[in-house]
């Protein structure tokens, strides 16, 4: 007979903080690429990745003309389009950005004919010990499995949008150039390491701090950067 493991109140609160940061108020952000890389060798369902660079995404999405779509679930993206209305591209694409020390869990890899959708969920750094468990799952009140719920929503999004015309704003050369790199990969195609990296210049530090402010991303659960 297996012995029940007693969880302390502190651990329960920690787990709840991780779940709240990750899933409460989350929405989908989109980024498409035609880069030539092996999707199923680069990404594995259940793995944790770090962005490694600023990740431009859009709240707009219709049919992707590209081979791979990244769909990111998050409640902590910096919604730049709300503050920088002087840029036509920013406004038209509803630009939202994740800073380089953003962490994601690969939730699903979905293929329809010759197009892939890679579903990532934005997670807090201090939530990795919980969320990296391949068998991790949680239930909503009422018993519905939360992981299945979000994966099913992401797949339904792809199925629905494949029936739409492409969004012309996301087909511009400037936007495609900004979103061509697969999330979390270096120029040689390998993934960035998971170790937190402090910005190497004051300009990059200020930029990351600015995106964190817009994203309400100074919570202790995600190792906020100390302001200078």
Features:
228 residues, alpha+beta, five-stranded mixed beta sheet, 28% helix, 19% strand
Write up what this structure looks like.
The chain contains seven helices and seven strands; from the N terminus they run αβαβββαβββαααα. The mean pLDDT is about 90. The protein has helices at about 10-25, 40, 90-95, 130, 145-160, 175-180, 200-215; strands spanning about 25-35, 50, 55-60, 70-75, 95-100, 105-110, 115-125. The longest helix is centred in the last third of the chain and has 16 residues, at about 145-160. The protein is α+β, with helices and mostly antiparallel strands and about 230 residues long. The strands form two sheets. It has a five-stranded mixed sheet, with helices on one face. Strand 6 (about 105-110) and strand 7 (about 115-125) form a beta hairpin.
Report the total helices: 7
Characterize the main sheet.
5 strands, mixed
Q: Strands of the biggest beta sheet: in what spatial order?
A: 1-4-7-6-2
Structural class: alpha+beta
Number of strands: 7
Unreliable segments (pLDDT under 50, ≥5 consecutive)?
A: none
Beta-strand percentage?
15-25%
Rough outline: globular
- Compute the separation of the termini in Å: 54 Å
| Share of helix, binned | 25-40%
Average pLDDT across residues? 90
List the helices and strands and how they pair.
Blueprint lengths: L8 H15 L3 E7 L5 H4 L5 E3 L4 E4 L9 E7 L13 H6 L1 E4 L4 E10 L2 E9 L4 H4 L14 H16 L11 H6 L23 H13 L14
Parallel strand pairs: 4-7
Antiparallel strand pairs: 1-4, 2-6, 3-5, 6-7
């Amino acid at each position: 007979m297996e012995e029940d493991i007693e969880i302390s109140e502190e651990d329960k609160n920690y787990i709840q903080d991780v779940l709240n940061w990750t899933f409460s108020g989350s929405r989908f952000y989109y980024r498409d690429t035609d880069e030539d890389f092996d999707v199923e060798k680069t990404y594995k369902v259940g793995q944790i990745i770090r962005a490694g660079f600023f990740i431009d995404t859009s709240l707009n999405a219709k049919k992707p003309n590209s081979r791979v779509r990244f769909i990111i679930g998050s409640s902590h993206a910096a919604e730049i389009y709300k503050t920088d209305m002087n840029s036509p591209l920013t406004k038209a694409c509803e630009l939202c950005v994740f800073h380089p020390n953003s962490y994601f869990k690969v939730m699903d890899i979905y293929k329809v004919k010759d197009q892939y959708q890679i579903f990532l969920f934005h997670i807090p750094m201090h939530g990795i010990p919980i969320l990296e468990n391949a068998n991790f799952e949680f239930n909503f009140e009422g018993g519905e499995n939360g992981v299945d719920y979000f994966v099913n929503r992401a797949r339904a999004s792809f199925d629905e949008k494949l029936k739409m015309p492409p969004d012309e704003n996301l087909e511009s050369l400037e936007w495609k150039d900004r979103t061509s790199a697969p999330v979390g990969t270096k120029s040689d195609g390998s993934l960035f390491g998971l170790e937190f990296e402090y910005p190497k210049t004051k300009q990059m530090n200020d930029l990351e701090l600015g995106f964190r402010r817009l994203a309400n991303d100074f919570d202790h659960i995600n190792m906020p950067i100390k302001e200078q």
